[in-house]
Write a structure and sequence with these properties.
8-stranded mixed barrel, Sortase, Chain: A, 26% helix, alpha+beta, 196 residues
Length: 196
């Protein structure tokens, strides 16, 4: 084989690898986008029926809340459970924490490169609106932004107020997934008189 032929083969191989990498990334984004449309329908049905509706027949999760950050134009349906099967499609509510809108600490997590990529733009005093399955809106205000090591970060579940924590992996631009660092946005519920 001549050098020119070897060069052509290498170019074809590199183009193939590039295409595979870009299509994998596009698949993740596309799945997240499509899932949110299916979840919007399931959420509307959940609100109408006042009981959980699965977004697709084989789903092992269901919508438990809707989260909005008006200043950033962000809006997502939140699924029950913060395991991989939920987080692949939407933010997930950690089941061992308080339900969104209830007293105590509620934690919602999502991937940093899909549904919670916007967290790096959240600022102190931003409002976060959570709609519960009964259609009630709960308004929270951002009180703290922090980077924590999940191995040493503990949360008190005995708070007498409503706290919502939004978490994702950190840093936002990391090449390799995983790692112990988390970006945590802490919000506290406003009283009814302080709404929007």
């Amino acid at each position: 084989m001549s050098r020119q032929q070897i060069g052509r083969v290498l170019v074809v191989i590199l183009l193939g690898i590039s295409f595979w990498q870009f299509s994998s990334a596009a698949l993740i984004q596309g799945k997240a986008w499509l899932a949110q449309h299916l979840l919007q329908h399931a959420w509307s049905s959940t609100l109408a029926r006042k009981q959980p509706v699965k977004p697709w027949p084989w789903a092992d999760t269901w919508p438990v809340a809707r989260i909005e950050v008006p200043r950033l134009g962000e809006d997502a349906i939140v699924l029950a459970g913060a395991e991989g099967n939920s987080l692949a499609f939407a933010p997930g509510h950690m089941s061992q924490t308080a339900s969104p809108g209830k007293q105590g600490v509620s934690i919602i997590s999502a991937h940093r490169d899909t549904h919670f990529s916007f967290l790096e733009k959240v600022q102190l005093n931003d409002k976060v609106i959570v709609t519960d399955p009964n259609g009630m809106k709960h308004v929270y205000v951002v009180t703290q932004l922090q980077i924590v090591d999940e191995r040493h970060f503990h949360i008190s579940q005995t708070l007498s107020r409503q706290v919502l924590m939004l978490t994702t992996c950190y840093p936002f631009d990391a090449i390799n997934p995983g790692g112990p660092l988390r970006y945590v946005v802490t919000t506290e519920a406003l009283s009814r008189g302080e709404f929007i």
